[in-house]
Amino acid sequence: MSHTALIPSHRKPRQSASKTALRAGVAGGVLSTIAVAGAAGPAQAEPVTQTIEMPTITAGLSTTVAASAEATQQVALDLETQANQDAAAATAAKAAKKAKAEAVRKAEAKKKAEAAAKAEVKAKAEAAERASRASRSTERTTLSAPSGSSSSSGSSVSTASAPASSSASGSAASVVSFVQMQVGDAYVSGGTGPNSWDCSGLVQAAFRTVGVDLPRVSQSQSTAGTQVGLGNLQPGDILYWGGAGSAYHVGVYVGGGQFVGAQNSSTGVVQKSLDYDPPSGAVRVL
């Protein structure tokens, strides 16, 4: 066996005649086409003179940009406005809180001032009442002082210092008669008759029968005439309890150490001796 028998051959396999012819034809056709194009190219070439215009987008773009800028500016303005509103609201809330606190402080101060004023008024009233009681006590002591012919038990009353019973005359008699006719009537605060009275209402009505128009309240009635001493009383004189101008009770002296007055809701209108409730002073109107 030959030593080359097992070495494979490196020659290309033969192609068939039909494939060879096909390849030759294709190659020939391509070469022909190139030749024709080369021959015709320089003769048919013409310079390009037409300009192709690209669509212009500048106008639309500028409008879009402008709109976007305006929208951005509007947003910025809106944000600034909102910030200003928030700041104003915060300032207003702070001011309202401060005003409320100030109002509360003033209200408390006013309440304290009113309480202090009430306390002061009450203190003054209590002081006046104490002074009135002291004055009444002094008057009671004076009226109860025994006369030169006092008994061993000590005379209780005022008949020694008051004039003896004497018959009233004229207007004084009319006043005395009127008040004595009301004895037994009820006492009613603010009463002006005809069947119920308070102290000043009775006195006013009595003097009105003789054409004398007295003030309505006891404070004013206690200064309506000439002040007279309790040792110099005459029928028809107005008796008062408390200070002149600040009296809290009035009655009418009817003579003989007696007076008539609308005392209180328990007793009504009574006629009593002066030692029953010694007066503080007296005024003479008639």
How would you portray this structure in words?
This protein is α+β, with helices and mostly antiparallel strands and 286 residues long. Among the domains are: 76-145; 158-284, endopeptidase domain like (from Nostoc punctiforme) (endopeptidase fold (from Nostoc punctiforme)), CATH 3.90.1720. The chain has five helices and eight strands; from the N terminus they run H-H-H-E-E-H-H-E-E-E-E-E-E. The protein has helices at residues 17-44, 58-143, 170-181, 199-208, 218-221; strands at 186-187, 196-197, 226-228, 238-241, 249-255, 258-264, 268-273, 281-284. The protein has a six-stranded antiparallel sheet with strand order 3-8-4-5-6-7. It has a two-stranded parallel ribbon with strand order 1-2. Helix 3 (170-181) packs across helix 4. The radius of gyration is 66 Å and the shape is rod-shaped.
